[in-house]
Design goal:
Elements (H helix, E strand, L loop, with lengths): L4 E4 L17 E6 L1 H7 L8 E5 L7 E3 L20 E8 L11 H11 L8 E5 L20 H9 L4 E4 L13 H7 L4 E4 L12 E4 L10 E3 L3 E4 L1
Parallel strand pairs: 5-6, 6-7, 7-8
Antiparallel strand pairs: 1-11, 2-3, 4-8, 4-10, 5-9, 9-11
Helix pairs in contact: 3-4
Length: about 230
């Protein structure tokens, strides 16, 4: 397969980075060049670090187990669900706390000239990645109400992806849109960035999770291979 460019769609991970749960993110050295060089009298030196971070941190995927007790954990989801042609839907005109409705989805579908359905990564682009980490970034954003989530599920989408940090109505703390997708086996990739570089292009979307036994989700390093 030939492609013209690789677009990095993931956020970097770093100590104390912002995340939706406010949980600890830390990386600290367990070996350093100076220490090992001293211990080995100059014969050997290397560096390595310990990682502490939640599964749902930065650009990450939610697996069905996140909301469904008997749902598939991340290590049991077929890799074919994470390597798909991308279908980018533009909702950058939406403002904070505006719903992306079924009619909005239908209009975006018409603009692309492609049907929303199985076999592709359905990517909702809002432009909110530019506000990542700023005050209000978690709640002052567009969202997909339950009706829109159900409509996408009925279209049998294979994977949902977005630059949003949360897909649900910010006032619905129980995250019902999450449950619609995860209860039907549809994984979700959140907090993408650089989607503006994919406008009007055909690309293969790849977002592989760590093979974490029993994991409810995982950080991913998503890329787009532009054709």
């Amino acid at each position: 397969m030939r492609f013209k460019e690789i677009v990095d769609l993931g956020r970097e991970l770093f100590p104390e980075m912002p995340n939706i749960g406010g949980l600890e993110v830390a990386f600290w050295p367990i070996e350093t060049f100076n220490d090992l060089r001293t211990l080995s009298q100059g014969k050997f030196a290397c560096e390595s670090k310990m990682m502490l971070m939640p599964e749902h941190c930065g650009t990450h995927v939610d697996a069905p187990r996140h909301f469904v007790e008997e749902g598939a954990p991340v290590d049991k989801v077929p890799l074919s669900q994470f390597i798909l042609p991308g279908h980018l839907l533009d909702f950058t005109a939406k403002g904070p706390r505006e719903a992306i409705t079924v009619s909005d989805l239908e209009a975006a579908e018409l603009r692309t000239g492609r049907s929303i359905g199985p076999g592709t990564a359905t990517i909702v682009w809002t432009g909110t990645d530019k506000d990542w980490g700023k005050p209000g970034w978690v709640s002052e954003r567009p969202y997909l109400p339950v009706e829109s989530a159900q409509w996408l599920a009925e279209r049998r989408i294979t994977l949902f992806a977005t630059d949003l940090i949360g897909m649900d109505n910010p006032d619905e703390w129980w995250w019902p849109s999450h449950k619609v997708w995860l209860s039907q086996g549809i994984c979700m990739v959140q907090q993408l960035c650089n989607l503006d570089k994919l406008a009007g292009k055909e690309f293969l979307f790849i977002a592989l999770p760590l093979k974490m036994r029993g994991g409810t989700g995982s950080p991913v390093r998503p890329v787009a291979l532009v054709m």
